[in-house]
């Protein structure tokens, strides 16, 4: 009689580590394989945990996707939204419009670095998966509201020459689409892209770097 070799799991995993291991594994798989092509078994194997642990640690596949997206956007698993982050407050509290623009662009680029691949996977999955479509709509709505707040902040500091609605529209579209094309595909350094984006948005705001 042939014996079946059971998969061994990491005996050193602490109970509290499982959620982060599952989310990190899912994030890697969703970004490389895609959401639809990734199974719970794949996530369990990548995380080095048993299949039931995936559900007890995080939840169903849609719940895992939400956790992956949320953590990619804010940068960690703390239950603090973007609006409550010190780096976001720094941009809002900066009185100089040009400096505030630079800080907001820095924040958008950092978010794009962390979340770009996951967002693309989510967008692809949304076309055929109802749970992914619901999450995608939620993420898009939150993103639109976030950039609207950033654009309004910059416009209020820059004065009437700044076209607030145009700024908000560009901030909503450019970071995600252009970052992928210029950084991921064309190989631009992130610093070059960040400066390019600042230069584009400066024109909409009627701002120019201060000298002296």
Model description:
The chain is mostly helical. 70% of the residues lie in helices and 0% in strands. It is built from 9 helices and no strands. The radius of gyration is 20 Å and the shape is elongated. The relative contact order is 0.10. Residues 1-6 have low confidence and may be disordered.
Quick recap:
The protein is mostly helical and 212 residues long.
Question: What's the structural domain tally?
Answer: 2
The oligomeric state of the chains shown is single chain
Number of strands: 0
Strand percentage: under 5%
Order of helices and strands: HHHHHHHHH
Q: Which parts are unreliable, with pLDDT below 50 for 5 consecutive residues or more?
A: 1-6
Write the layout of secondary structure elements.
Layout: H1 18-32, H2 40-47, H3 51-57, H4 61-74, H5 86-93, H6 97-126, H7 130-158, H8 164-185, H9 190-205
Essential attributes:
mainly alpha; Arc Repressor Mutant, subunit A; elongated
């Amino acid at each position: 009689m042939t014996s079946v070799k059971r998969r061994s799991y990491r005996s050193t995993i602490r109970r509290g580590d499982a959620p982060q291991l599952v989310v990190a594994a899912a994030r890697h798989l969703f970004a490389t394989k895609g959401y639809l092509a990734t199974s719970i078994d794949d996530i369990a194997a990548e995380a080095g945990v048993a299949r039931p642990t995936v559900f007890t640690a995080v939840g169903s596949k849609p719940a895992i996707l939400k956790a992956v997206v949320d953590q990619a956007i804010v940068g960690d698993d703390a239950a603090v939204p973007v609006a409550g982050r010190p780096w976001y407050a720094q941009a809002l509290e900066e009185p100089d419009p040009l400096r505030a623009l630079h800080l907001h662009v820095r924040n958008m680029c950092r978010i794009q670095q962390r979340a770009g691949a996951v967002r693309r996977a989510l967008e692809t999955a949304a076309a055929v998966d109802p749970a992914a479509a619901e999450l995608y709509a939620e993420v898009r709505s939150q993103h639109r509201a976030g950039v609207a707040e950033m654009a309004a902040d910059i416009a209020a500091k820059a004065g009437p020459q700044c076209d607030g609605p145009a700024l908000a529209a560009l901030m909503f579209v450019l970071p995600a689409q252009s970052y992928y094309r210029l950084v991921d595909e064309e190989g631009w350094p992130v610093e070059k892209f960040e400066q390019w984006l600042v230069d584009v948005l400066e024109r909409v705001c009627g701002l120019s770097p201060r000298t002296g």
